[in-house]
Protein: GL24139
Amino acid sequence: MAHFGLFFNMGQCCCAGSHTFLEDKIYDEFVDRSAQRVKRTVGNPLDLNTEQSVQPTVFADVLDSMTIAKIFGPVQQLIRFTMLDEVIERANNSEYGLAAASL
Structure:
């Protein structure tokens, strides 16, 4: 769902889920699975099994201070967190209106 929430329609949608906050205990496995997921969806745009004809991009180990953490677009940013209160504050630290989902 995290992959689909961003990359459907090539990430060109007003509520694309580019910021993916992940709890410490699942972070490393999620990064590995995300990297594998983006590799298997790219191909010939005329092939019905192809989801994207351009290469999706995933950034791991994103920190709040990084430029990539302050932009929205067709790049997935995997951001680690420890406590729920912390992630709520960090997710809301944006000048943009946000859509959110919890899995």
